[in-house]
Write a structure and sequence with these properties.
The complex is a heterodimer of chains A (115) and B (109). Chain A is mostly beta strands and 115 residues long. Helix content of chain A is 0%, strand content 56%. In chain A, a hairpin with a 2-residue loop joins β5 and β6. Chain B is globular and about 40 Å long. Classes of the chains: A mainly beta (115), B mainly beta (109). At the A-B interface, β5 and β10 of A face β4, β5, β9 and β10 of B.
């Protein structure tokens, strides 16, 4: 596979469930990102990892917990979510944060619905 | 993040027409990127601009990095039905990308 993949593509969960989103990139990049995309809003950056180290947590509630075991994989662990957390969650990757190439490549997203 | 104003919010055009959309900011950016997002998919990178004044083409798409570094525009020539989607601009400062709200493009045959 090439590019950035995300699983699952769709997820429906109750407010008391625990689930995880997975992202994998096959581009040889070292920086990975989680974004939230809600209707009528710009993409919101949630977390940034560079060479497996978290460099940014953009004031995200603790019910979202990221994990980056290596430069190719990124997870977002979800627990006790709220209905307003329903959105498209996008993963992206780029070369690394020290590079002068700033192009980010996105996965297809996970459509999350919290009931 | 820095706020980007993207316009128009939506466009409804006929196949074959040319399209123009732009993005402005009160802040200076070092890089401008343009993405297209199809329904149910993630954004796909169309064009990256790295120098003020730079004009870059990708097939029927042409984008320019404004000379003030505070704006960018994207043109699509001779639109076709598969151009339908949402087009996002993104400005880069540091390692973060700041995204506009998108321009929704509808093309009728």
């Amino acid at each position: 596979e090439t590019g950035v993949t995300q699983t699952p593509r769709h997820l429906v969960m109750g407010m008391t469930n625990k689930k995880s989103l997975k992202c994998e990139q096959h581009l040889g990049h070292n920086a990975m990102y989680w974004y939230k995309q809600s209707a009528k809003k710009p993409l919101e950056l949630m977390f940034v990892y560079n060479f497996k180290e978290q460099t940014e947590n953009n004031s995200v509630p603790s019910r979202f917990s990221p994990e980056c075991p290596n430069s190719s994989h990124l997870f977002l662990h979800l627990h006790t979510l709220q209905p307003e957390d329903s959105a498209l969650y996008l993963c992206a990757s780029s070369q690394d944060l020290g590079s002068t190439v700033y192009e980010q490549y996105f996965g297809p997203g996970t459509r999350l619905t919290v009931t | 993040g820095q706020q980007l104003n993207q316009s128009p919010q939506s466009m409804f055009i006929q196949e074959g027409e040319d399209v123009s959309m732009n993005c402005t900011s009160s802040s200076i950016f070092n890089t401008w990127l343009w993405y297209k997002q199809d329904p149910g998919e993630g954004p796909v990178l169309l064009i990256a601009l790295y120098k003020a004044g730079e004009l870059t083409s990708n097939g029927r798409l042409t984008a320019q990095f404004g000379i003030t570094r505070k704006d960018s525009f994207l043109n699509i020539s001779a639109s076709i039905p598969s151009d339908v989607g949402i087009y996002f601009c993104a400005g880069q400062l540091g390692y973060a990308l700041n995204f506009g709200k998108g321009t929704s493009l509808l093309v009728t045959p």
